Task: inverse folding
């Protein structure tokens, strides 16, 4: 190698390695900012790792009390002098509460985010049409957001996303509008989506999608119990929809009464592992895939009346509650059969009880007595009430009926101190795999762009019959890799992207096997000159590893989050840096020995 060539070669490698080092430093900085920001925002309240109950207290609802239902211990008490709090919703992990607050003069109302159990204020959000995504919708469909009111709110399992369901419309039939608020980034979603007429709605925000269960306004007219939607979290677009059919068309009486009053409707949805359960008032069950909304099974009704107005899961038992009959109906969900019915003590009014919540790992529920404002523990196996755990709660209508008081959180099983990105890593495997695949294909395309002649020459060598078409084939390969990488990153296109990735990797694997036989010890030009790799076992194992990533990403088929992209970028950059350093050391050794290096930078 001549001195000038060696100098150019060393300068080029220095620039390349310096650029990769800068990118690696920026990626680490971005990761650090993500973790620090998440930890800072999550530091206001540590996960309690236990159930929580938040209730209005005193006969005049002048206070708010936070309780540990297992012991009845009072964790915090806050004044509520103006009775301005209306609806309340708790995060599943028990760290946050979303509360609708009305000003004393009724002129304004906001949605407050409170930390638990301290009840400290984290954020105050506009509740109505002044929220940014709703204001944008109002400019396009002003009638839709007329008389807009918040109906339901729900946190993601980790408490970092808040799904909001509103009712609007100037007509008689309410129209459902949903949107999201990101508590970690303190930012509204860029969209608000209308989902048509609605009798009620439940939301299940997730890392990449929003699941919406919409109950039909009049099931006997629509011949359906409602609709289930899956919305892309980034765009608000509906990516899946399923209509829930009516199984029973007759009018049924409420449990404990004789006269038929209504047709069965959805009582409550439950997200149980990788299944969505829709339980009806007559105790039928629809089991859906929460991502594709494929109907997995339908269980027949277990009651001949409207037996359930509230349901909860207590360990391996589904508990339905009928306030009219003051009964707890215990169901074995594995075999879908009624295993026990417990009648709660009643006085002059049979509708004296309410179902507050359930222990997630025990066959135990918590019930409240409206007449005396006490909280009780009810073990399902023994079927007997405990002594009162706490009293002095305000359990009166309409706060119990319409405003979701008292609010219950089952707590969390997340390890203490796991905040921000670290808490998301187990559930982000699919996202990281998708981002890693996208980065691999984009880097491979970029490398081939700057080594197009080498890629064309390799194609002509391994496949002589394509010698005339080697250059167009190389350009086509680059286009395929670019398209695959882009589809894997864009929202809603992961399915086609993963299908292309699978086809491309299988083709590349076959090409590598042929290349190892016809051109052994030749650079495969898989990544151009960015990552020199000869045909052999390493190429085959890398492709098999990438195919393994496809299997990890395929069940989710969702766009990776920013955190997933950061993690994947760090991995790709680290591999590139190690590969270039190894190639540089090998080239220097060959240069020192008088051997011309095979891979020019």
Result:
């Amino acid at each position: 190698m001549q001195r000038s060539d060696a100098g150019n070669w060393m300068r080029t490698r220095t620039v390349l390695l310096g650029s990769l080092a800068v990118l690696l430093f920026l990626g680490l900085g971005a990761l650090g900012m993500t973790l620090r920001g998440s930890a800072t925002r999550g530091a206001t309240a540590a996960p309690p790792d236990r159930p929580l109950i938040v209730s209005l207290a005193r006969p005049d609802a002048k206070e708010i009390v936070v309780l540990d239902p297992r012991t009845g211990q009072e964790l915090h008490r806050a004044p509520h002098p103006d009775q301005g709090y209306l609806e309340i919703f708790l995060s599943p992990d028990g760290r946050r509460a979303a509360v609708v607050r009305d000003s004393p003069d009724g002129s304004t109302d906001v949605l407050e985010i409170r930390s638990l159990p301290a009840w400290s204020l984290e954020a105050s959000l506009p509740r109505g049409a002044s929220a940014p995504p709703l204001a944008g919708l109002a400019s396009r469909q002003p009638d839709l957001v007329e008389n807009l009111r918040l109906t339901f709110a729900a946190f993601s399992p980790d408490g970092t996303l808040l799904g909001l369901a509103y009712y609007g419309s100037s007509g008689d039939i309410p129209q459902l509008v949903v949107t999201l608020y990101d508590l970690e980034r303190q930012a509204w979603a860029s969209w608000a989506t209308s989902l048509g007429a609605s009798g009620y709605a439940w939301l299940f925000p997730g890392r990449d999608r929003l699941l919406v269960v919409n109950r039909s306004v009049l099931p006997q007219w629509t011949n359906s119990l409602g609709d289930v939607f899956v919305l892309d979290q980034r765009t608000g677009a509906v990516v899946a929809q399923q209509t829930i059919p009516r199984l029973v068309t007759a009018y049924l009486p409420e449990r404990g009464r004789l006269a038929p009053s209504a047709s069965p409707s959805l009582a409550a949805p439950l997200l149980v592992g990788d299944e969505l359960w829709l339980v009806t008032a007559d105790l039928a069950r629809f089991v859906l895939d929460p991502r594709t909304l494929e109907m997995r099974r339908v269980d027949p009704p277990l009651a001949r009346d409207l037996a359930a107005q509230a349901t909860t899961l207590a360990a391996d038992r589904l508990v339905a509650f009928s306030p009219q009959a003051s009964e707890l109906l215990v169901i074995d969900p594995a075999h879908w059969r009624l295993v026990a019915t417990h009648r709660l003590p009643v006085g002059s009014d049979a509708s004296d009880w309410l179902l507050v919540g359930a222990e997630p790992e025990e066959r135990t529920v918590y019930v409240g007595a409206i007449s005396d404002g006490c909280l009780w523990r009810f073990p399902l196996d023994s079927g007997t009430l405990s002594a009162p755990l706490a009293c002095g709660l305000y359990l009166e209508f309409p706060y119990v009926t319409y405003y979701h008081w008292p609010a219950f959180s089952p707590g969390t099983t997340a390890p203490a101190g796991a905040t921000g990105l670290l808490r998301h890593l187990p559930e982000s495997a699919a996202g990281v795999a998708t981002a890693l695949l996208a980065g691999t294909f984009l880097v491979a395309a970029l490398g081939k762009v700057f080594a197009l002649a080498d890629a064309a020459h390799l194609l002509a060598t391994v496949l002589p019959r394509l010698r005339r078409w080697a250059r167009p084939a190389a350009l086509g390969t680059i286009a395929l890799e670019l398209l695959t990488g882009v589809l894997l990153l864009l929202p809603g296109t992961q399915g086609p992207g993963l299908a292309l990735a699978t086809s491309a990797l299988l083709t590349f694997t076959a090409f590598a096997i042929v290349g190892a036989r016809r051109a052994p010890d030749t650079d495969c030009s898989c990544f151009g000159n960015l990552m020199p790799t000869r045909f052999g076992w390493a190429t085959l194992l890398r492709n098999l590893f990438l195919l393994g990533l496809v299997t990890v990403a395929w069940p989710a088929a969702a766009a990776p989050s920013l955190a997933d992209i950061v993690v994947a970028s760090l991995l790709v950059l680290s591999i590139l840096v190690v590969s270039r350093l190894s190639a540089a050391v090998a080239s220097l050794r060959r240069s020192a020995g008088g051997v011309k290096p095979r891979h020019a930078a």
Notes: Residues 11-47, 413-427, 595-601 have pLDDT under 50 and may be disordered. The first strand starts at residue 52 and ends at 57. The CA atoms of residues 13 and 19 lie 10 Å apart.
